[in-house]
Design a protein that fits this description.
Length: about 600
């Protein structure tokens, strides 16, 4: 999710790559840096903070290089500091490298390099990649040969861009899962992590595919496989304007972020599942998990809804009593906190004022605290005892989509980790890991339901009220689906467990009322069908979301949307949010609403 740029040509390369990075600022970042060919060596300038700080460093240096690489970092490994900013050097300071993604086996590689005499300046996995490529380069061959050999030793999702002192005028890049785009124009070669950075310089681009290497020089770009076989890149002409380009060609950031969710899941899982086990670094000791007698989850808005999913998971999977609190209410309820409890704080930004106030109360009472946070270096990430980062990347739209999914996945990983440590009877960690592996493809299929969701949305765009209903985990997802519709389409909603309808909300059903039922859980489906009949008997129109392996709702609901089963009931329910996010998006679109910046709302609530 970080920004990458590279240029070889006759222009001032440093100015070009900094301009490219500036065109990716909308993605969010916490530090930036540049590497360029100097008279006798590679020069690196970098700084935590905004691009203006880097521009000041560049202005003092006034470089006139013709090849350069640049990076804007969204921290994953290591805090947002000058030392952790990219680019990074190898051991000999002869190679400079920038990197997107996560190297899952970086600790093992680092230990090998340390035994070989390497010393490291940063906390990042990126510096390990730089040292590894440098070590391979010292063995002989070209820079691209070294990149190929090193890439075979690394696992994870990554995109590397490298330059070497001994091969001026050349940039080498490699890709595995993290995006890289190549730009083609006469006498110049460019690359970037996203198309907007290339548009001022060329509209002829090609996407570097997985396990491919590209070599950029003034003469052009050569693409090959990791085995060295030359391949012809598929060049296409981009006709987007600059605003559309930032959004990847989508009309709104929200839709782009919905469609990014397969890759978000891969990023979230990177380095956290190995074989049939879960591997979560930096958590409490195994002994501590035996002590915990209760979990208190504290969050706001979408994160609160993710917390409700966590309650369902921890109580069903782990038999661990769990309460979920609104952050804004937690302190005022004078909560009874067991000294053996764990307080889990969930936040996309890590700066939510109410959640931070609740966190500080728990710290005062000496309660263990764990954060599930997206932003490295945020207040929450710094103040909790332990932190699990969601690794979802920047989220631009005010209405959260991919952050919710990532929070749910991290909670599932945490549940599996605890089950693994406690050797919970009846819990198959390996089955849970396999379900996680199935999830990205299942989400990809769910995004392909866009046309169906758009058709339904346009039919009910002017609805005065929409119901969202379900049971168990599906009831939790119903709350989040309803919030999306309220946030961006301004349509009132009624959301509750389906069995609660008879206790009041059923009075609101009128002829033609849309009722959306989550129906992914086979254990509750028979009861849910009875609830569907109750709605239909009063003239309601039912849209049901279920899994493709269950035909029981065929011919029952007026419209059935089917998602691919993952192999786990919790993940099936979590997956069902994807078509419901699209439903909210297309209803808001049909109503002409401002989707990315809905009225009265802000992305991060930093005041109480």
């Amino acid at each position: 999710m970080c920004g990458i740029a590279g240029y070889v040509g006759k222009k001032n390369a440093v100015q070009v790559v900094i301009d490219q990075i500036a065109r990716l600022e909308y993605r969010g970042y916490d530090s930036a840096g540049v590497a360029f060919d100097g008279p006798s060596s590679i020069k690196v300038l970098k700084s935590a903070g905004k691009l203006d700080r880097l521009r000041e460093l560049v202005a003092k240096e006034d470089p006139q290089a013709t090849s350069a690489i640049a990076h804007s970092r969204w921290a994953t490994h290591g805090a947002p500091t000058d030392l952790n900013a990219h680019p990074h050097f190898d051991q000999a300071n002869k190679i400079a490298l920038v990197h997107n993604g996560i190297i899952e086996n970086y600790m093992e590689l680092k230990e090998e390099l340390v035994r070989a005499g390497h010393t490291f300046q940063s906390e990042t996995d990126t510096e390990v990649a730089a040292h590894l490529i440098g070590a391979e380069f010292e063995k002989g061959g070209s820079l691209e040969d070294a990149v190929r050999r090193a890439s075979r030793k690394m696992t994870g999702a990554f995109a590397f861009v490298v330059m070497a002192e001994s091969e001026p005028g050349k940039i080498v890049c490699a890709r595995n899962a993290s995006p890289l785009v190549l730009g083609f124009t006469e006498g110049e070669s460019l690359l970037a992590s996203d198309i907007p950075a290339l548009l001022p310089y060329t509209r002829r681009v090609a996407i570097l595919e997985n396990n491919q290497v590209a070599v950029l020089t003034e003469a052009g770009i050569e693409v090959s496989t990791l085995d060295g076989k030359v391949v012809e890149p598929e060049i296409f002409e981009v006709d987007w304007d600059s605003t559309a380009a930032e959004k990847g060609g989508f009309e709104h950031f929200m839709l782009k972020e919905i469609m990014e969710q397969p890759d978000v899941v891969r990023q979230c899982l990177a380095g956290r599942i190995a074989g049939n086990e879960v591997s979560l670094d930096g958590l409490f000791s195994d002994h501590m998990w035996q002590e915990i007698d209760r979990v208190n989850i504290i969050a706001c808005g979408t994160a609160y809804h993710a917390g409700l999913m966590g309650k369902t998971l921890f109580e069903q999977m782990l038999q661990l009593p769990t309460d979920v609190y609104f952050s804004s209410e937690f302190r005022y309820g004078d909560p009874l906190l067991s000294p053996r409890s764990l307080a889990v704080f969930i936040s996309q930004s890590g700066e939510t004022a109410d959640s931070l106030a609740a966190l500080r109360l728990c710290k005062q009472r000496r309660i263990r605290t764990l954060g599930i946070v997206n932003v490295v270096g945020s207040s929450m990430a710094r103040e909790v005892d332990r932190v699990l980062f969601t690794q979802a990347g920047p989220e631009i739209s005010v209405a959260s989509t991919k952050a919710y999914l990532a929070q749910g996945i991290v909670l599932f990983l945490l549940g599996l980790h605890i089950a693994q440590v406690k050797e919970m009877p009846g819990v198959s960690v390996s089955a849970g890991v396999q379900a996680l592996r199935n999830l990205p493809e299942a989400i990809q299929e769910a995004t392909e339901l866009a046309d169906e969701m758009k058709e339904i949305a346009e039919k009910f765009a002017q609805a005065p009220l929409v119901f969202f209903l379900g049971r168990r985990a599906d009831a939790n997802v119903a709350l989040e689906a309803a919030l999306k519709l309220k946030e961006i389409a301004y349509i009132p909603t009624q959301e509750c467990p389906a069995g609660e309808m008879k206790h009041g909300p059923l009075a609101l059903i009128e002829q033609g009322t849309l009722a959306v039922f989550g129906a992914t859980d086979p254990a509750t489906r028979d009861k849910l069908i009875s609830n569907i009949r109750e709605v239909q008997a009063r003239g309601g129109y039912v849209l049901a979301v279920t899994t493709s392996d269950d035909p029981s709702l065929d011919g029952v609901a007026e419209k059935v949307i089917k998602i691919r089963p993952t192999g786990d009931a919790f993940l099936n329910a979590l997956l069902s949010i994807v078509p419901l996010q699209m439903l909210a998006y297309y209803m808001a679109h049909a109503r002409g609403c401002e989707i990315d910046q809905p009225r009265n709302l802000a992305k991060s609530v930093t005041v109480e």
